[in-house]
Amino acid sequence: MTAPVNDQTAEAIDSLLRDAGVTQQRGLIRRIMVAALGLGADGASRLDLKISASALEEMRQAFALFAPYAGVRKASIFGSARTKPGDLLYTAAEESARALAEDNWMVVTGAGPGIMEAAAVGAGVERSLGVSIRLPFEEEPNAFVAHEAHHVAMKYFFTRKLMLVKESSAFICLPGGFGTMDETFELLTLQQTGKMVPVPIVLLDRPGGSYWAGFKDFVVNELEGGGYVTAGDLDRVLITDSADAAVEHVHAFWSNYNDLRWFPTDVPGERDALLLYTRVAPTDAQLADLNERFGDMLDSGAITLADPYPEEGSERATLSRVRLVPRPHAIGELYRLIWALNELPETDPTGPVGGEG
């Protein structure tokens, strides 16, 4: 849609930005202001405007909550608000969160009771962040985070889910109701479509539990069997009844692999190149093995080591770069390649935190 901004309005926006002291990312701030003016010019309804205003205001609050911890890896833990203390699932969530916090991770929860409370208790006040939802009939923020500076309350589920997913480098899902299934299916959808950078997802049950085993049966028999998803899509997810295995899986995923970034190639018509940043570079022999195993996922060229790009930030200075040009829809192969890179060396799972640039 054409933005309703003439030269005079554009000048007024720029003047307002200067008067407000906005000096960074002014182009993006300007886009937000132009979009807001566009809503007014479109004659948007009061409800549409209230949704837009509340969403932006809530996201600003949530961004401010997470900003001081940008350099710390975080894991989101999902599960039922109805799980009681003493339940084996409550214990599993608490133990998982405590183990992650002891390894300098932060834990993100929906700030409600049940599994969310268990995870917050396990991580401790300084290592937990809560993003609660305001509901008319149920779920108040648990007492552990309700009055802490590590908590933000949101009106809309979509903004809340954005923050629960956007900031995290791992996800542990325990059994729950419709909300837990909604969060889990969204994770799997984002993973399957490549709309989320690769992260470990764990479906954690009580010892001997059947919740996630039944979920897997449904996916395999109904979704895969009906041709609605690709066979093996659930292979990227760990299903376990062990809190120790859940935490070990999270650490293993980040043991050598650090993050990824896309760069345009200098070859006309060639797809963008993908750089996988690792703490330890594969040897020539290991690269040859990776090309043998994962050559089918390439759109062109080979898996190679790359020199730093000028656009990279200093936070990647100590990392190695594995370069490839993948074909479309190679999400499953990408995860397997990351695990192959993690299996190469013995590495320290604590290290620099990156993100998709």
Short description:
With 357 residues, this protein is α/β, with parallel strands linked by helices.
What does this structure look like?
This protein is α/β, with parallel strands linked by helices. The chain has 3 domains: 7-66, no CATH class; 68-253, Rossmann fold (3-Layer(aba) Sandwich); 257-342, Ribosomal Protein S8, Chain: A, domain 1 (2-Layer Sandwich), CATH 3.30.1370. Helix content is 42%, strand content 17%. It has helices spanning 7-19, 26-42, 46-66, 88-102, 115-123, 157-166, 178-193, 211-224, 243-253, 284-294, 331-342; strands spanning 74-78, 106-109, 128-133, 151-154, 170-173, 201-204, 237-240, 257-263, 273-278, 298-305, 320-326. The strands form 2 sheets. The chain has a 7-stranded parallel β-sheet with strand order 4-3-2-1-5-6-7, sandwiched between helices. The chain has a 4-stranded antiparallel β-sheet with strand order 8-9-11-10, with helices on one face. Helix 4 links the parallel strand 1 and strand 2. Helix 4 (88-102) runs parallel beside helix 5 (115-123) and helix 4 runs parallel beside helix 9 (243-253). It is globular, with a radius of gyration of 22 Å. The two termini are 27 Å apart. Residues 347-352 have low confidence and may be disordered.
Strand proportion: 15-25%
Tally of separate helices: 11
The separation of the N and C termini measures 27 Å
CATH topology of the largest domain: Rossmann fold
Low-confidence stretches: 347-352
Helix content range: 40-55%
Number of extended strands: 11
Strand order in space, largest sheet: 4-3-2-1-5-6-7
Count of the domains: 3
Structural class: alpha/beta
The CATH class of the largest domain = Alpha Beta
Radius of gyration: 22 Å
Mean pLDDT: 90
CATH architecture term of the largest domain: 3-Layer(aba) Sandwich
Q: What best-fitting shape do the alpha-carbon axes yield?
A: globular
Biggest sheet: strands, sense, closure?
Answer: 7 strands, parallel
**Pattern of helices and strands:** HHHEHEHEEHEHEHEHEEHEEH
